[in-house]
């Protein structure tokens, strides 16, 4: 009832039917030095596979209890080369629907490129449409092919030569518009052209106009006259007609001159291709010359067919996202011919023309395990995205050694300062042994960490002197056996230290070691004794007698333990005997000195110490005021041991002191291991360790053990061969990480060639300033990647 009162419902056409244009994504392709354009046909085939018949593009959508018909317009792909005086960039405009597919195909074709989606193509559309533009078109029909040689980069090689004649603000744009087509009619078209060749008809690709019609009338007239001559020849000749085989051979000869690529084009996949070249310049003459330089480059790929060019009228407007460019000829090319067009620059072109937008080095992904942590390695680029990289912070892998290989000015000092800051923020201890120039490294680190955590030992200043002893080892209040064990630990470190003091590089003889070991074990059962006290025990018979007599206060087991050592030390006593003149019997025996000839090897080394005022002073000092390395390491202190080169310019002195402090660190590390199950990490830095060869030996003997006790060794050098071979091999065997900073010697890469794969020497040589090629150990083996080093700290 009252239906007539209801309002009529109206429907829009768009509610039932809609035509949808494809949406496009712009992909920026950044070339790599290893690019090869061998298989770009793969991208062309992918474009061809986008073709859909009209009925396949009709979609039916159910909507609001009704349906809607959607017709999707066909899509294309545009490849663009943008050339300026300073750079050359490559873009692809692809349907959004196929974006990921084309990214995959590009990275499959060019293994190490970066493909990144950008908002817009690098081209001003208004400027482009006002520019001088030319189109390229086939000289002959589509069935005939261009030359294809995958081993060359033609025509790109020649196209980029235009850079040499370009000036600032000049621009060249090369556009290749690829339109997928139905393949079903292609073979028929191909055969028609072949028939024309056999029949002797022209196969120039020309539009049908009055001149072309006139041309064909002329050809027909010539053919007719030729026919009349054949008839006349038959009448007046010998009456023998030409055989069918002769006619066949003549026809075949016309086809055998065609190239293999043309013959294979019959069964090839084809694309409609539009080629446009645009030139922009304030100077009209140069604008024309730049355009001609590019257009002439295509002559190199001419064979059965060739590309000619003609000017595009200004009234023809071109939009890069249009399906096809109106007023521009289409050339039906095989995907193999498209290999000539879809090209990007490789190493030779990138270097020759100094192209800025490129990937100089291989980009490698950062493992997930190294994307978090606290020791920051810097940022790494991979496939157009930035990732932050860190040292592995898992306890065992985080304690493995690190070898920094860098020339001067490579960013080593800044990186170490950042690393120390990271460790200090985590309450880890840091020890810097700096004996280079004015200790710039230690000073930089000092500015980077919390002031209250710094312990600064400037060994050129008297108030910072340290007694040459191992005060970290204390046996007071311990049982007798523990006291002997602690003394023996200090004795071992003393032996290493005395061994380091030499100019000939020879170790102590076994006899010398026996005397030194006996004295050290005897002296070190007393706390706060130093290496100087050990030497006094050897030299001074009264001191020796004092330490020997103290053994009487020990238990019977203690006396037995020391008995052979006492016997050894008594060999050093110089005894004066008084004999009866008549009977010649010994009346009295008195110790009056020491047989120094027995310990001259030890004393020679001690004399070397006495020659240097700093060492002599420290040698005679007590250890009461020494830094306790165990306590400092447990408290996360930053210990800066500075030996300015103007005060410590003697190689032997440096070697002695670095060895002494290394021995203290090793001893403290082992003692911390007995105090804690997992001691907090201590980071020990050595710069140019080769200047302390004996310290290298000390580190070499314990490097694989330090990880268990929480001590991480960081060594910086110019090249690996600066280290002694044993240490170099031990570093590698212990699972150390490596960082090769920009400018590092190529011999470093050769040493790690197998571990660095797939990186090549070129990657190291092409590193940008303040970048590093890293080989970082973690649970799954070695991670290889490049990072931009952290910026200097404020």
From TrEMBL:
Lineage, top-rank taxon, reads Bacteria
Annotated protein name in UniProt: AAA-like domain protein
Q: Which organism is it from?
A: Clostridium botulinum
